Amino acid sequence: MEEELSLSYGESGKPVQATVSSLKMLDVGKWPIFSLCSEEELQLIRQACVFGSAGNEVLYTTVNDEIFVLGTNCCGCLGLGDAQSTIEPQRLDSLSGKKIACLSYGSGPHVVLATTEGEVFTWGHNAYSQLGNGTTNHGLMPCHISTNLSNKQVTEVACGSYHSLVLTSDGEVFAWGYNNSGQVGSGSTANQPIPRRVTGCLQNKVVVNIACGQMCSMAVANTGEVACGYAHTLVLTDEGQVYAWGANSYGQLGTGNKSNQSYPVPVVVEKDRIIEIAACHSAHTSAAKTQGGHVYMWGQCRGQSVVLPHLTHFSCTDDVFACFATPAVTWRLLSVEPDDHLTVAESLKREFDNPNTADLKFLVDGKYIYAHKVLLKIRCEHFRSSLEDNEDDIVEMSEFSYPVYRAFLEYLYTDSISLSPEEAVGLLDLATFYRENRLKKLCQQTIKQGICEENAIALLSAAVKYDAQDLEEFCFRFCINHLTVVTQTSGFAEMDHDLLKNFISKASRVGAFKN
């Protein structure tokens, strides 16, 4: 099988630590697994990792430093204490209070995590001792790995298919797990059940970056030397040049063909300097980002073999793996930083009913609602004419209730409404009066969502009154489908005579009274 990994150098010539990526406003929703989360849950996510044979496992942290998981839970890789799948996010209480510094995953899958305090935790698939706990039993819960690491602070972790690497703050590398190709670096091909320091050519070297392919390992020393096994490997030099070597059956080397390479060859992207490269052992996809912000991809991209770097419309390499890798996984632990920049729409929402910036106030039912003349004139034809030559800063309103008129003004700032079905009827009246057709549709949607046997007749009456034909038909059908209960309500007993007559006639025509 092929191995894929990536290492990168910063412009200073020093290797970049590929731990947590700082990407503001990252859209984690591009990964299909996140469709199981609500919009509210997605907004709370600050770190995320998608893994698994089908991109069907996810771990994420929230603004409250809580860790959640969801997915198929293959081999207990969610760390919940069992192997039961979950379609809803579950809090990982066993790591309560821990903050994630970096995380990686294998093919089993198994998970290796380092905290900001330098501790290492592992769980999941363990047939080859890749958890480093000295056994081959699958780990259903996170296990603290301290053997040979008790006095070490781990700063970076990496996983191959079934082996694991960690890098300590003093530049040492420890490895364990599957070793059929010597990927643990122990000098033999026997599996390694516990963390063991990698020496050999790394003896007396200070390592600053590590990565794993499916069955290989790589380390970058502070001298710029590279130690690696056979692999599909990408490296980025301090001059912004990408080199690749290894397996190339999907064109993942970006050389223009599918021939394997046993030595580094340059990957020609464009004249602009490359600042980031990306690959992952679970996919045959490669990506790179230039200093000018262009993102390129090559290799296996949704079933196609792209043998040369292809310019995408993405703004970050992570999106390549979300949209084109198979499976749709993350190639690194994502960090979703909160962005305090407000869009124009968000700024307008904040200014609704703000007395500090308003130049107009409406007096409704003895209460003030604060607004801005220029916005009202831009958003509403009625105000465009009524406020044109009006220099008053107070407008009294008696035609509509306070909740209804406030909801109308708020709609002009937010494009949305939040009302009960009964209040939405009043807003429907206003929308009809002001000829606000989009608002009229929103009111009808709200009424439909809140209809019940008790209010069905009242809502039907409102639909008829305001000539909302679609809503009228909806309410009528609801009444027919719940006829026995509806006809016993007070609303039906107090129904307008003409409306009752029309209702009975129409109900008869659709066969509501047949035996």
Automatic annotation (TrEMBL):
Natural source organism: Suricata suricatta (Meerkat)
One Pfam family per UniProt: RCC1
Alphabetical list of InterPro entries matching this protein: BTB/POZ_dom, RCC1/BLIP-II, Reg_chr_condens, Signaling_Regulatory_Domain, SKP1/BTB/POZ_sf
Keyword Repeat set for record: yes
Residue spans of the RCC repeats: 118-170, 171-223, 240-291
SMART domains reported in the protein's UniProt record: BTB (SM00225)
SUPFAM superfamilies xrefs: POZ domain, RCC1/BLIP-II
Keyword tags: Repeat
Lineage: Eukaryota, Metazoa, Chordata, Craniata, Vertebrata
Top-level taxon in the UniProt lineage: Eukaryota
Protein name: RCC1 and BTB domain containing protein 2
Residue ranges of domain BTB in the record: 358-421
PANTHER family, per the entry: BTK-BINDING PROTEIN-RELATED, RCC1 AND BTB DOMAIN CONTAINING PROTEIN 2
